[in-house]
Design goal:
The structure holds 2 protein chains of 2 kinds. By secondary structure, chain A is mostly helical. Chain A is 72% helix and 1% strand. In chain A, α3 runs antiparallel to α4. The longest helix of chain A is centred in the N-terminal third of the chain and has 28 residues. Chain B has 12 helices and 2 strands; from the N terminus they run αααααββααααααα. The longest helix of chain B has 32 residues. In chain B, 49% of the residues are buried. The chains are: A mainly alpha, B mainly alpha.
């Protein structure tokens, strides 16, 4: 997947060298460093790395619609929550009875349920959201995200705003989910698969239509493409991928609460995407890594870490254009 | 479901409606004129409430506290506009959203640093603290009635300001074609600053009015701001009239839904099913309304004529 880094055919070859080497280095580092530290006896950083990898999957899926499709969704964390509850609710019923139909610990079932429910939710809300544009779209995706948030807050059975604790992780044949390393590599493998999938989508004919519709919708329409249908399909795919990430997240935390899909969570996902840069499929992974590092570093200094974080966010918007991958691209251009 | 309860919940819905209007009017003004999306609008609501709380304790009177909190909130609005917001007008909506999301984090943390993590309850003077008898057998808290009347008064004032004053003329002109207004020699930057401060005051006022009922607390703005977004989406972004009608509509539907939906559901399903599903549905009711409105009219109920 050499040309993951670029979607710009002209002059792409040069920036690809810096950026794609950087990507490979990052992915290798992700496979080696946390594991090495864990083998050294410190479990903490493997936890952080697992969260990073899971959130990266969510951010990469958001970037498919935000970066490549120009659909600024402010409700993407809803799918993380839906995915997580698709693990939590069947596990809850497997333990406490009722709803025999979905009561199971099977991980395969959880994942399929998470992907399907997320896709259906994306299809219904996307069909309405995509009728609108610009700022309407931002606010409506946000409002639908909050709708799901309030729905789970009001469901007393599943813990309401206290959240739902699951006592056992999903059971997947052949993988010991309770082994932190095995779980980490499941997430890591998923991330690789998702990056490859999104890369293939972005560079396919379908992906070209999505990007074309972002650049000049009228032209795509006059070329005969029904941009609405293409956009909706991309929206559903992104939702389904993020639902999958949610299923992983639910398993990882074993504690599923509506806070996962609060609009602040959506904002953080968006920040990861923008910080990493939207022009690369891999960009959001860098953004997620920086976000988690910032969180760890700042919260080590002060419990009020949201203040420096907020200031950095504002400064990033005001002064850093194109995120980290934009910087990489510029480096690539000046070096080559 | 007796008639007096319906009337009382109707008034509660009106009270929520006018508060939503105070928030939504500022949002719709900044969007209509500056094309600016302000997520941090809810923070100004929170700041207003905290100023009002502190000043009420300082002066010993809620009325003085409120009157002094208004210019304070305006100053915060001005400071935010001058330092951050004005550099963003030329950017796209995504940048607006991210930067104002950053502002929310800053505001929430700063408020916590200044006023502490606990909420502050605001005492009312005796005159406002009681209840009034509206009809025989129907009593309603005086202060909630004051909120409704005050909110309607502000709505009337805004209507007058926008339609019958020079500033209002500039606002309307700025909304339809700001380049032209600038070309005619109006200092558009100052106009923007003034409009932003006006929106800040309206949001702050809503916070000041609700503080004695709920208390001033961290993050109070983040909950209501989404509802205010729903209001302006339903009303049509940029439309003052749309914001007013949609605010009352959503205030009423939300309040009535939470009170009476379980009774309605009991007519068609078992008591147990109604009691589990009603809270979930009523929590989603306004979003369902929004979805229906958008499915029929993607630009909202009263889209502004221009743009």
């Amino acid at each position: 997947m050499a040309d993951v880094s670029t979607t710009d055919p002209a002059g792409g070859a040069r920036k690809l060298s810096v950026a794609s080497w950087f990507m490979v280095a990052c992915l290798v580092a992700l496979a080696v460093i946390p594991v090495a530290i864990y083998a050294g006896g410190n479990a903490f950083w493997l936890d952080i790395a697992t969260r990073l990898v899971v959130l990266s999957i969510a951010a990469v899926s958001l970037n498919l619609i935000l970066g490549f499709g120009g659909m600024v969704s402010f409700g993407h964390a809803a799918y993380l929550g839906i995915g997580a509850y698709c693990v939590g609710i069947p596990t809850y019923h497997a333990l406490f009875g009722e709803f025999e139909l979905i009561a199971t610990n099977s991980g395969i079932f959880h994942v399929i349920l998470a992907v399907i429910v997320s896709a259906v939710f994306a299809l219904i809300t996307g069909a309405i959201c995509l009728r609108t544009k610009g700022v309407y779209f931002i606010m409506i995706t946000m409002a639908f995200g909050q709708m799901i948030f309030y729905l789970f807050v009001s469901l007393e059975t599943y813990g309401a705003d206290d959240g739902l604790v699951i006592t056992s992780r999903s059971e997947i044949p052949g993988i010991d989910m309770d082994n932190p390393l095995a779980f980490y590599f499941l997430c890591y493998g998923s991330l690789l698969a998702v990056i490859y999938l999104v890369h293939r989508i972005v560079n396919s004919r379908f992906g070209m239509v999505i990007q074309g519709a972002k650049g000049n919708e009228d032209r795509m329409r006059s070329l005969g493409y029904s941009t609405y249908v293409y956009r909706l399909a991309a929206y559903v795919i992104a939702g389904a991928i993020c639902g999958y990430a949610g299923a992983l997240l639910g398993n990882f935390t074993s504690f599923i609460s509506p806070d996962m899909m609060d609009w602040a969570a959506s904002g953080e996902l968006m920040f990861m995407v923008i910080l990493g840069g939207t022009s690369m499929v891999f960009g959001p992974v860098i953004g997620a890594a920086l976000f988690l590092l910032l969180e760890q570093l700042l919260s080590a200094f002060t419990v009020h870490w949201h203040l420096p974080f907020g200031i950095m966010l504002i400064l990033t918007v005001l002064f850093v254009k194109g995120g980290i991958s934009g910087l990489l691209a510029r480096m690539g251009r000046s070096n080559g | 479901m007796d008639a007096s309860l319906v009337l009382i919940q109707f008034l509660n819905g009106m009270q929520l409606g006018v508060l939503l209007f105070l928030l939504a009017s500022g949002l719709t003004l900044t969007f209509g004129i500056m094309d600016f999306v302000n997520l941090a609008h809810g923070s100004l609501y929170m700041i207003g409430a905290f100023f009002c709380a502190s000043l009420t304790f300082w002066t010993g009177s809620f009325v003085w506290g409120l009157l002094l909190a208004i210019p304070c909130t305006a100053l915060v609005g001005l400071a935010v506009e001058l330092s951050v917001i004005r550099h963003l007008y030329a950017r796209d909506h995504l940048d607006h959203v991210l930067a104002t999301f950053g502002l929310i984090l800053c505001f929430d943390t700063l408020t916590q640093l200044i006023w502490g993590p606990e909420g502050i309850s605001v005492p009312l003077p005796d005159v406002l603290d009681g209840q009034v008898t509206l009809l025989p057998g129907i009593v309603f808290p005086t202060f909630r009635l004051v909120i409704i009347l005050g909110g309607l008064l502000v709505a009337g004032g805004l209507y007058w300001l926008v339609n019958h004053t020079k500033l209002g003329m500039l606002i309307r002109a700025g909304a339809s074609n700001r380049t032209m207004v600038g070309a005619l020699g109006i200092d558009i930057q100052t106009l923007f600053t003034a409009v932003f401060a006006l929106g800040a005051v309206l949001a702050g006022l809503a916070g000041m009015l609700i503080a004695p009922i709920t208390e001033a607390s961290i993050g109070m703005g983040n909950e209501i701001i989404i509802t205010a977004f729903v209001v302006i989406i339903v009303g049509g972004i940029g439309s003052m009239k749309g914001a007013f009608i949609a605010a009352l509509l959503i205030g009423l539907i939300d309040t009535m839904g939470r009170s009476f939906l379980d009774d309605l559901f009991k007519l068609v399903m078992s008591t147990e099913a109604a009691e589990t599903s009603a809270p979930a549905v009523s929590a989603m009711l306004i979003y369902i309304l929004m979805a229906v409105v958008l499915a029929i009219r993607p630009q909202g109920l009263f889209p502004p004529k221009v743009r």
